[in-house]
Specification:
alpha/beta; 6-stranded mixed β-sheet; 5-stranded mixed β-sheet; copper ion binding; Purine nucleoside phosphorylase; hydrolase activity
Length: 246
């Protein structure tokens, strides 16, 4: 069973019983400000010993092997490999106990599984990766039809805080004209407020995935989560999905 730790989140979606999904928060670790306290990012200038301790707590409490990635805002999808740190922005696994793991602090974490419960996947979707098709690439990593895939959208920057330039709006509208509905003019001339959750749903629907859950939390406004826009020197929380080992 997945242990509920502090105020960590358990994904609320109709996944098969053997599929588990969790999102950590800032609570439960040993990192000091501004990384307080459960920072899992080893690339943000936090004390490496603190990060190692936090990661060991994560592994022990969830009884999983997390597969960390070197995230680069791309579209590569790899098989989750706990013994390596692969350069990619998404991973998949069919191995029980191996957790596809994404770190974020405003970007969108998306967790996937098939209805059979035999494969899981996780994606890191900043606006660049989202516009380039990282979610679609994950869907294509499944042998299942898109209609047999479930997606849960984890905490990301909310539409009231995600101000972008016209080039971001154009990047989405070039391939999905309906994406215009996810942008509203900002109070700042020439800028737009973007709804990353709506953009994800539009792109997933266009790719045949309609069983999409989650969304609605804002890392910028909810201080349970790290947020790069709220404070550039900050930690990273993790979103994980795995098949439970029996």
């Amino acid at each position: 069973m997945t242990e509920r730790v502090a105020d960590w989140l358990i994904a609320d979606w109709p996944a098969p019983a053997g599929v588990k999904a969790c999102v950590t928060t800032r609570s439960g670790g040993v990192s000091v400000a501004p990384f307080d306290s459960f920072n899992l990012g080893d690339h943000v200038d936090d004390d490496p010993a603190a990060v190692a301790h936090n990661r060991s707590v994560l592994t022990a409490r969830l009884n999983i092997q997390p597969a960390w990635l070197k995230q680069v805002h791309g579209v590569d999808v790899v098989e989750a490999a706990p013994a390596e740190v692969l350069e990619a922005d998404a991973s998949w696994s069919r191995t029980p106990g191996v957790a596809c793991t994404i770190m974020t602090a405003d970007c969108l974490p998306a967790l996937f599984c098939n209805k059979a419960g035999t494969q899981v996947a996780a994606a890191h979707a900043g606006w660049r990766g989202l516009a380039a098709g990282v979610l679609e690439a994950v869907v294509d990593s499944f042998a299942d039809a898109p209609s047999d895939i479930l997606v849960w959208l984890g905490p990301a920057i909310g539409p009231q805080a995600f101000e972008v330039g016209p080039e971001v709006r154009e990047a989405f509208m070039d391939t999905h004209p309906e994406a215009i509905q996810a942008f509203v003019p900002s109070a700042n001339a020439g800028k737009f407020m973007a709804d990353i959750y709506q953009l994800a749903r539009i792109r997933l629907a266009a790719h045949g995935v309609t069983a999409v859950y989650g969304g609605g939390l804002s890392t910028y406004n909810d201080e349970r989560f790290f947020s790069y826009r709220r404070g550039a020197r900050t930690g990273r929380f993790a979103s994980l999905v795995w098949i439970e080992a029996r």
